[in-house]
Design a protein that fits this description.
Blueprint (H helix, E strand, L loop, with lengths): L2 H30 L10 H6 L5 E2 L2 E2 H15 L4 H30 L4 H23 L23
Antiparallel strand pairs: 1-2
Helix pairs in contact: 1-3, 1-5, 3-4, 4-5
């Protein structure tokens, strides 16, 4: 593992821990039946009590918690499989976050600061995990080159 990969892994891990904190808080609020702390005028409570706060029978914060834990866990899997799994989970999480944000804006008409912070964290994770995956993709051979040839050294034709 080179230094850049290590730094990306650390950054991804720290962001996952922040996301786990947000999702854990929202999961606790959901199951305890509490009103979430909110800096704006009740937007968090409106979002958390909406019909969109549960997806396929699962509270959305629980899905977020699973996503952050999955991405964090992918850091423990070596090689391309771990990088690919982390990127897949983060890109899926990013897309789901954008879907939820659009619901807040256009259906619920309220913004939850916790949800926005989670969406920002998932966006950062998508960027970093895809960058980490992309950095380590092997170069594809050029069609004109035979395997084992140095670039630009075509075999003489007979």
């Amino acid at each position: 593992m080179d230094r850049t990969d290590r730094r990306l892994g650390i950054a991804i891990g720290v962001i996952c821990l922040l996301g786990i904190g947000v999702a854990t808080y929202l999961t606790y609020v959901h199951y305890a039946g509490l009103k979430p702390l909110c800096l704006n005028s009740g937007g968090c409570e409106t979002v958390q009590s909406s019909r969109y706060a549960i997806f396929l029978g699962i509270p959305v914060p629980v899905l977020g918690l699973a996503g952050y834990i999955g991405i964090l866990g992918s850091l423990a899997i070596p090689g391309d499989i771990g990088r690919g799994l982390g990127a897949l989970l983060a890109v899926f999480g990013f897309g789901f976050s954008m879907y939820l944000t659009s619901l807040e804006l256009f259906r619920i008409h309220a913004i939850c600061q916790w949800c926005v912070s989670s969406a920002v964290l998932m966006t950062l994770l998508a960027i970093l995990t895809v960058w980490r995956l992309w950095r380590y993709q092997p170069a594809l051979p050029v069609a004109d080159e035979a395997p084992g040839e140095a670039p630009g050294e075509a075999q003489p034709q007979e």
